[in-house]
Specification:
The protein is mainly alpha-helical and 242 residues long. It is 48% helix and 3% strand. The chain is built from 9 helices and 3 strands, in the order ααααααααβββα. It has a 3-stranded antiparallel β-sheet. α6 packs antiparallel against α7 and α6 runs parallel beside α8. It is globular, with a radius of gyration of 19 Å.
């Protein structure tokens, strides 16, 4: 539970798979824990200092372009869904490894859960910079991807989610534009899937393309077996994307 999770906390407020036995906290895991703790606050006691330290650590991990550095590692990559498949290896402007746009969207989604965000100037500035970065990525996708690949469909779905959360928070007209554009692209992907309207279908992330029947637009039709005796099941990325 909550108390056990705190044993994986570093002195700087970040979290990692093995806690203080790891050299540093993990960007993805810290954002994951932040989101879970903020949602759990409605049911259990969560120390506000723990929340604040995570937010401060994530703010410091942001690069000048709005993305977030990929710090630490996640041993069970399947937990990361499509973020793992979209990881990058470029150098960060502030040193270390530059995280992918998908990692940026994941961290942004966690920061958007922070209560009273409008009155938290430091966090709001980080959110706005990350949002601008995501908006640019979205613009590139829906401008140049008329028939998105499975990977691009995941990216569109992820960015549509953070855009919807920004709209809920009342954070700018650009979020409305990004949300409308991503919905249009996702709808177009479904229309050009080639899968019958009565068939079971879902949007597949990159890992699905090698295991199932991937139609144009990134839609996957279940049924293609992983092995001869097993029926194909959707991956965590498939579920997250859908």
């Amino acid at each position: 539970g909550y108390q056990r999770e705190l044993t994986f906390r570093h002195k700087d407020g970040s979290f990692s798979a093995f806690g203080k036995r790891d050299a540093t906290g993990s960007t993805w895991l810290t954002a994951f824990v932040l989101k879970v703790f903020l949602r759990a606050k409605s049911f259990i006691f969560v120390d506000t200092t723990v929340i604040g330290d995570m937010v401060t650590w994530l703010r410091a991990a942001q690069d000048p372009d709005g993305s977030f550095k990929k710090i630490g590692m996640v041993h069970h990559q399947e937990m990361m869904g499509g973020v793992a498949a979209s990881s990058a290896s470029m150098k960060s402007e502030n040193g270390g490894t530059k995280g992918s746009a998908s990692l940026c969207a994941f961290v942004l989604g966690a920061l958007l859960e922070v209560p009273n965000l409008a009155s938290d100037a430091a966090t709001l500035a980080v959110v706005e910079k990350a949002s601008a970065y995501i908006d640019q990525e979205l613009y590139t996708l829906y401008t140049y991807s008329m028939s998105p690949t499975a990977k691009e469909v995941y990216m569109l779905a992820q960015r549509a989610y953070v855009a919807a959360r920004r709209v809920e928070k009342g954070l700018g007209e650009q979020a409305q534009t990004a949300l409308a554009a991503s919905r249009k692209s996702l709808a177009a992907a479904a229309q050009h899937s080639g899968v019958g309207s009565s068939a079971l279908k879902f949007w597949g992330a990159p890992a699905s393309s090698a295991q199932g029947k991937v139609a144009a637009g990134g839609l996957v039709q279940p049924g293609a077996p992983r092995m001869m005796m097993f029926r194909r099941r959707p991956s965590t990325s498939d579920v997250e994307t859908t």
